[in-house]
Amino acid sequence: MSKVWFVTGSSRGLGREFVAAALARGDRVAATARSTASLDDLVAAYGDAILPLAMDVTDRAAVFSTVRRAEEHFGRLDVIVNNAGYAQVGAVEELSGQELREQLETNLFGAVWVIQAVLPYLREQRSGHIIQLSSAAGVIAMPLGGAYHASKWALEGLNEALAGEVADFGVKVTIVEPGGFATRGGRNPDPLANGHMARTLPAYDDLRRRLAALVGGQPAGDPAAAAQALLKIVDADDPPLRVLFGQGFYPLVQQVYADRLKTWADWQDLSAEAQGHPAV
What we know:
The protein is globular, with a radius of gyration of 20 Å. The protein is of the alpha/beta class. The termini are far apart. The chain has two domains: 4-248, Rossmann fold (3-Layer(aba) Sandwich); 249-280. The protein has a seven-stranded parallel sheet, with helices on both faces. It contains ten helices and nine strands.
């Protein structure tokens, strides 16, 4: 049976490929973006199967009204893809308060508003699948990405809690963690070049150069392939809570988790002392 999708950040990159893949297989899509002009070709190709909607995820009232319009138009909502977001780049010392707030307003609060807006419909129909686009940056952290990591790590915890809250209603949650994808006209996904840059302090210039050499050389994933992978997730009877898109970060994630476990184990004596109990 065909599904009805609600996708944020649909104008380009992964979001647009998700919309195109869903339409190509006969699903219907409410595709939202700040500007929907880039969706005109999909409207011409698929007609009433796509409903383009201009929406800013940071505007809570607009999110609720847009979700309501989509549900009224299609009669139901099945797959919710929280994709809208961007990367703020800068050392923690370099970030302005405004830059940090705007990062969280879009990446975190925007996702929350969508979740809150769709859940009454999903609970009532006792079905639905919320797809949260996180990132490998939601699992590991690198210098100069503090604001972006803060937003994605917050989304990871929020959606893990959400999964436990909505399971009894038949609603599923999957956190998708892409590595690097060519989402800007095929360019290599180097966040140091493609992100929103904070003011730069000379003290961090050497670090910037080292990271640019490390990250900029990584191969870019294909957003169209990611869209096909997402179709398999939304069709799965038992979809994963978390899934990495792309292989490059998996060994790094393994090492990061191994290092965390080792550090906690190495400091267990102190952990016991901190609770007022002798070490076992």
